[in-house]
Each structure stands twice: as structure tokens, then as C-alpha cells.
Amino acid sequence: MNYHKLLNRQISKYLTAEIAENPSVKKFLSVIDDSYEALQRDKLLVERAFSISEEEYIEINKKLSHEIEVKKKSIDKLKSALGEIGGIHQDKNSDDLLSIAEYLNEQIIQRKSAEQVFTSLVNNSQSGILLEDENRKIVFTNQLFCTIFKIPQPPEELVGVDCSQSAEQSAGLFKNPEQFINDIQNILEKRLYVSENVILNDERILNRAYIPIVLDGVYKGHLWSYTDVTESKKAQEALEQSELKNRLIMNSALDAIITIDDQGLITFWNPQAEKIFGWQEGEVLGKRLTDNIIPRYHKKGHETGMDNYYLTGTGPVLNKMLELPAVNKKGEEFQIELSIIPVKQGNNNFFCSFIRDISDRKKNEEALKASQELWQFALEGAGDGVWEYNFQTKKAFFSKQYKRMLGYQEEEFPNDPNEWMSRIHPEDLPMILKTDEAYFAGEINSHQREYRILHKNGDYIWVLDRGMLVNRTLKVCPKELLVPIRTLLTVNFLNRL
């Protein structure tokens, strides 16, 4: 295109051929050329003005002023257009057409660079991307989208293709084709952001996202994104199943199970905890453990223990079986058996407590102890020595009267079954061992034996040993046998020569 010679000189000096041939730039240069032509005419008019009369000069000056004003308005419009393109307004005092041209060149380069970055990001995305304009014509797509929807053409060949029937064409790839079509239509009608999962025929799960594009309140198109979330969905479902299974197990446990977070707030409370303590789960979740089940005189110790754990990573009550007092909803205090396990999950710490109400057991133990003390007092009052042997723990107890009968003080005769066994006369020992075997075989529940036992003075004395089984446990053998675990015996000395 032929421009004014001055303009041609500036174009050759400052613009590349590629930029000069750009349609937008050519249009811009045409406006500049008109300005140069106007300047040329201005020059001719000025030269002519000196050769004409004053009246003619005034008339020409008016025309020139008008043309200058038109030129100024043209440049202002051009600067405004450039500001809208680049988002930046030029300096109001910058009326140099060359600076405007340089600015336009910068904007073109920046836009080209931004488009390259966008294209690279989309092409390397782990999602299938489709960008459509307001008329549902393809603006951009990537290879992964073509792969998911089994489109044979490369992405660049799809630009400008009409997608108005694409839902019907692709519906066969999905498990529920009719629903796929209806969902697409509803999404396009509402033009609201959507993120949902759809299932392909091969059971793969895709997350479909729809993003409407609105500029200055005007709908300009939308973007579709399809991401394969099959593995993450399976992992999430497996985790949910695992959590459900764990919750079912914990809810079915015979022990109360309570978990608290690192702030001492209750995060889990199973049905057995409801039964033992009286509070329903909804009443205690999110509340402090110290406000519910810990007696007032133990609250300070609990808080100190929590602080110590976070400082040292250890605690005196952790990973141990303890017997402690607790409080129920009615304010009643009772005994519990408690074990606390610290658990670290990622960056979070929490504590899991297993609790059993042992108040009945403690009452029974106290009753048994009182009963034992009563019959021990009665038997010793009658002159009998008493001893107890636990077949399961291999532990024994010998009363003071028993030890005195053999000539020993309390501290001289340890509660060791070997002390008794080692003192039995060698000729009587087979009879004693046979008696033990009969208890283990479940053949007897009581016995009465006479045998000799060594006195402290070195002599063997005859004793009458009467015993009975007071407790049993079930031991799994080739056959189920009832095995004795505790035998109580009374011993009388016999006068034998």
C-alpha cells in the first residue's frame, strides 16, 4: 500500500514487515497516512496563505483549525481503543503517533505470548478441555479431550466446528446415554457452574466441569473439562468402607470406646459409652472429656498429663491397663478399667480410650475377699492352717496358722508352691502328684489326703489335707476339658507315732 513518503520512512525504520502487514496495523497506518496528507495540505495552505489576501488567509485558518481538531479527536479515539485492548491507558499528553505504534506492537507481542502459555497449559493438562463460543463453535480443545471422546481428528482441525449435536454423537460412550444428553441440555440452559461425575461404558468415572464465560455481563461461551477420577473415586470408596467397617466394629464393641482430639474434645462416643455413662453421643461430641466422665479431683491431673504428652511424647497412663474412678451423667462415681492409646494421623494427634465398667466385679471381689477372710478366720480359729493354690498362675498363699504349724514365722515361709512341694516326704509325693492330675483331668472336685511334711525342726509330721475346688476355667484341648484353677485346702496335724 502506498503511504506518504514520511510515513514510509518511519515504517521502514521502526516496524517489521510482519507487523506492517497486520490488518489492524494497516488500518491504523491508514489513519496515520490520512493525518500526514492533512499535514501536507496544511503546509500547502500555509504557503498559499502568504500569497493571498488577508480575508482568504482567515478563511483558510478556520479550515485548518477544524482539521487539527479532527486530527486530535482521531488520536484520542485511537488511544482509547488501544487502552481497551491492552487494559492500560496511554499518557494523555502522548500524542506522538510513533509511540502509539510502539505500544500497539508491545500489546500484540504480549497477547501472542499469553496465547502460547494458555495453549501449553491446556495441552499438558490432565483433563480433557473443550472451549466453545456463544454459538457452540469450537475455539480450542486438546488431545486428551479427543482421546476421551474417540475423536480421530487432531485438535487443531476442530477449531470452528459446530458442537450443537455433540451430546447426541457422544452419548453412546456413556453408561446412561439418555441422561448424558439431558444433563448437557440442562447445563447449557442454566449456564451455571457445574461439577459432577459421569460413568463411561468401561466403568471409568469422569468428573465433568462446566464453566460459563461471561464478560461485562455478556455470555461469550463456556469451557468443558473432563477428568478421569476412577482411581481416586475407588480409593475414596475403599476408605469410606474401611471407616464404616471400623465404626461398625467400634459401635458393636462390648467396651466403651471414646476418642478425643489434641484439645481434649470428644470426637467419638460409641453405644456402649452411652450405656455406661448415660450421655447420648449428640450430648457429648465436641465437648471436653473433663466436663463429663472425669471426677473433679482428677481433672487437673488429666490436663497436666495432656500438656506433658505434647512436651515429651510420653505419659504415665498411656498404653497401660488402669483401674480408676469415673462419673456418669447422674453424678454417680464408679470404678472403670481404662486403657488409653495415643494415635498420630498425619499431622494430627488423638487419643483412643477403651473403658469397661468394673463396678460389679469390684463388688464381687470385695465380697469374695470378705468371705475368704471370714472362712479363713473360722478355720484358723478351729486350729486348721489354710493354703490356696492357683493351677493357672502357679501362685500359692499360706496362712499364718499354716506356717506356725510347721514352726515358721510369717516372714520365714514364702508364698511359693515349691516351698510346700519340696517339704513333702518322698514316699508321699507320688500320691500328691496323682491328686493334681485328677484335678486337671476333671475327675475330682475335692480331696482328703494324709501325708508327711517336713517341720522346721527337721522332723516329718503327719497332716490331714482336705481341699476343694472353688473355681474353674475352660481350656481348649483336643477335647474341651474343665480345668481347675484354684484349690483351697485345710490342714490338720495328726498324732501318729
At a glance:
The protein is α+β, with helices and mostly antiparallel strands and 497 residues long. The protein contains 16 helices and 15 strands. The protein has four domains: 5-113, no CATH class; 125-232, Beta-Lactamase; 257-357, PAS domain (Beta-Lactamase), CATH 3.30.450.20; 362-493, Beta-Lactamase (2-Layer Sandwich), CATH 3.30.450.
Describe what this molecule looks like in 3D:
With 497 residues, the protein is α+β, with helices and mostly antiparallel strands. It has 4 domains: 5-113, no CATH class; 125-232, 2-Layer Sandwich (Beta-Lactamase); 257-357, 2-Layer Sandwich (Beta-Lactamase), CATH 3.30.450; 362-493, Beta-Lactamase (2-Layer Sandwich). 45% of the residues lie in helices and 26% in strands. The protein has 16 helices and 15 strands. It has helices at 5-14, 17-20, 23-49, 54-86, 97-123, 143-148, 166-170, 177-190, 230-252, 271-277, 281-284, 296-312, 359-381, 400-405, 417-421, 429-440; strands at residues 127-133, 138-141, 194-199, 205-215, 218-228, 256-261, 266-269, 322-327, 333-345, 348-357, 385-390, 395-398, 446-454, 460-476, 480-493. The strands form 3 sheets. A 5-stranded antiparallel sheet has the order 2-1-5-4-3. Strand 9 and strand 10 (348-357) form a beta hairpin. Helix 3 (23-49) runs antiparallel to helix 4 and helix 4 runs parallel beside helix 5. The model is unreliable at 474-490 (pLDDT under 50).
Please specify the SSE layout and strand pairing.
Elements: H1 5-14, H2 17-20, H3 23-49, H4 54-86, H5 97-123, E1 127-133, E2 138-141, H6 143-148, H7 166-170, H8 177-190, E3 194-199, E4 205-215, E5 218-228, H9 230-252, E6 256-261, E7 266-269, H10 271-277, H11 281-284, H12 296-312, E8 322-327, E9 333-345, E10 348-357, H13 359-381, E11 385-390, E12 395-398, H14 400-405, H15 417-421, H16 429-440, E13 446-454, E14 460-476, E15 480-493
Antiparallel strand pairs: 1-2, 1-5, 3-4, 4-5, 6-7, 6-10, 8-9, 9-10, 11-12, 11-15, 13-14, 14-15
